Amino acid sequence: MIRIAALIALLGGLAAGGLVTTIVLIFVLRAWWSTPFEVLGFGGPPEQPIPFPHGVHAGVGDLLDEDGNVVTYADGQPKTALGLDCTYCHRNVDKGASASVPPVEQCIFCHKAVQEGEDNPLPGLANLISAWENKEPVVWERVHRLPDSVRFVHEAHIRYFTQPGNLLPSGEQATVAANTCSTCHGDVAAMAEVKQVRSLKMGDCLDCHRDYSAPTDCTTCHY
Fold first, then answer.
1. Contact (Cβ atoms closer than 8 angstroms) between residue 128 and residue 138
2. Which one-letter DSSP state was computed for residue 188?
3. Domain-embedded: residue 18
């Protein structure tokens, strides 16, 4: 009986170990080929020093709460999104390699007038004001990261897709940068917190280059 119990325990241990190994392997393969599962802090949006609401700034139409209800002011009037194009804040995206992150001065340009109040709660605005007064940058957590060996030029992609006749993968003609940005970054204006939605692996980029007859030699994207 002791030997049978020991054998059962051994088999149970092997089965449990095999299950754990399988789970870890699936997790690693998913992260390698696509994006990680959103567990234990992996794959989800990073926590930012200021909860910047892209939906308020870049969205269009009435603002909705988590339950899908229209957000209103105290007088009952609906709050609407600003509908800003990506280039309003990420001003280098159509001019150079990096999209650039807006400096504190650019945020303060608007928020000197747009202040927090009972009818207009703005979580994190105090941190922004503090950074401005202390002449300190806001250290945003990076969401999208490519290997150091990769050279990705935002301007070239914006310029290509906004040229008349060059359609986006969705079949639309890009008229503003936001249409083009969503190809890789997803519908940021609809995200409560910005996270990576495409794998951005080498195969992902190569497939897109092949679809649009773009060069695929190594020196195009690698230093």
1. yes
2. G
3. yes
